[in-house]
Amino acid sequence: MYCLADCNNFFVSCERLYDPTLNGRPVVVLSNNDGCVIARSNEAKAMGIPMGCPAFQIKKHTGSANFSQVVQLSARHTLYHDISLRIMSLLGRNCERLEVYSVDEAFFQAPFNDPAQNERFLRDLVERIYKYVGIPVSIGYAPTRTLAKIASHIAKKNPTTTQGVYGLTDASKIASALEKTAIGDVWGIGRRLTESLHNRGVATAAQFVEYPTSLIRSLYNITVAHTHAELKGIDCTAASPVTIAHKSIMNSRTFGGLITSRNEVQAAVVHFAEHCSRQLRREGSVAGTVMVYVRGDRYREDVPFYSNSCQLNLATPSSSALTIVHYALQAFSCIFKEGFAYRKAGVMLLNIKPEKTVQFNLFDKEDHNKQNRLMQAIDRINSRYATQTINLASTSSTGEWKPRQKHLNDKTQGCLHIYSGMIASSKKNKKNL
DNA sequence: TCTGGGGTCCTAGGACCC
DNA sequence: TCTGGGGTCCTAGGACCC
């Protein structure tokens, strides 16, 4: 049996943890640059604010009377990440074969064969997460991951009857859940597939399951066939590895405004490249390819649009910031054109492999070791003091490219310091967790 | 005025090989 | 008139996820 633990309205719940005045109010958290809605409280959902809605369109959905009630907050991803780590580590200590799927979701195996025992164990888990971390969580369990997803939705939508835990444990429960699940709400069925299935008269998960497997396979691809099988209770993901190394690492931002200065866009690219290389080192990997892209504003019709990307292969795979930045700058100079206004840029690392598996030749090896020691020293200093204590000289800029964050919550400013204190003090209670 | 960021997997089609 | 067949590898683009 697969269990799925899913945090309720995660980013909003994190904000409420440090600012209880947000409880009971319609709250939305906005993406970088305060662009789109990426999390909503139940109250905000009830007002009809859709996920991904551009911030300036919120009013259209709520009406002007309700709009004044809505609290908009700029995202604080560092905080959310830290809270996520606490939840995941609590789950890891209590559950078998934990697979962290995203910042607010994780799969694990149900510990018992008996449904009543599982139910008790999972309810206790939900209570403990709320007690020790303060975040409400829903847990669903079922024979496959896709069904566990549906079960967790049911738990989330019916908190009073389920107390946050719901199991699809027998055929009749599964059949009734599939009938009530719209096809577009099934994990793996997105907008395009929903449209296509609607055209074939398939509106619910139950109708989808009725479709013959051979027909699904001939009309769609293997991924859709897997989703189809999983809804029937056939596990298609058992062979997937528990720990998954990244195959690509990306860092990019939409700028706070339109930028024409070469220096400023270049500073952003250097910043992204450094950030990517830091993550690469954390994972003990090296990259063989660096890709850089720049683009204008796709929504503005009054300024000429330009978009381009360049990919370069490294002579020897590396994780050194010096090397990655060097190649990123080379790629950047191939695609940057004066006379255009830029709105976004990004760096992507590809051909990633574990450092241990790479063969260096004698001369590379020496250089590699030298740079490695330098990077380790810089990483140590930055992790001890602050991320930007030491950085490359080429990153200095006026910061014009940095995204806007107009809606940071004053009450959660500095909460990371409080938070570190909580972690330290919680160590005393470790055996209770 | 204002429209995010970071990933994965699959497929079709082209290039190339014998 | 008739212009192979089978295989691999790579890439771009589409679709999906949170």
Supply the key terms.
433 residues, alpha+beta, Alpha-Beta Plaits, Dna Ligase, domain 1, 2 domains, 5-stranded mixed β-sheet, 4-stranded antiparallel β-sheet, 17 helices, 20% strand, globular, DNA-binding
Q: CATH class of the largest domain, please?
A: Alpha Beta
What is the radius of gyration computed over CA atoms, rounded to a whole number of angstroms?
24 Å
Number of separate helices: 17
Residue stretches low in confidence (pLDDT < 50, at least 5 long) are 417-433
Structural class: alpha+beta
The CATH topology name of the largest domain reads Alpha-Beta Plaits
Amino-to-carboxy terminus distance: 24 Å
Largest sheet: 5 strands, mixed
- Overall 3D geometry? globular
How many domains make up the coordinates?
Answer: 2
Question: Could you give the topology of this structure?
Answer:
Elements (H helix, E strand, L loop, with lengths): L1 E6 L2 H9 L8 E4 L6 E4 L1 H5 L11 H5 L1 H4 L3 E4 L2 H18 L1 E7 L2 E5 L5 H18 L4 E6 L2 H13 L1 H4 L2 E3 L3 H10 L10 H9 L5 H6 L2 H7 L2 H10 L17 E11 L2 H21 L2 E11 L11 E12 L2 H15 L6 E13 L7 H23 L30 H12 L7
Parallel strand pairs: 2-4, 7-8
Antiparallel strand pairs: 1-6, 1-7, 2-3, 5-6, 9-12, 10-11, 10-12
This protein binds a DNA duplex (18 and 18 nucleotides) through helix 10, strand 9 and strand 12.
Describe this structure in words.
It is a single chain. The protein folds into two domains: 1-169 and 408-433, Reverse transcriptase/Diguanylate cyclase domain (Alpha-Beta Plaits), CATH 3.30.70; 249-395, 2-Layer Sandwich (Dna Ligase, domain 1), CATH 3.30.1490.100. The model is unreliable at 417-433 (pLDDT under 50). With 433 residues, the chain is of the alpha+beta class. It is built from 17 helices and twelve strands. The structure holds a DNA duplex (18 and 18 nucleotides).
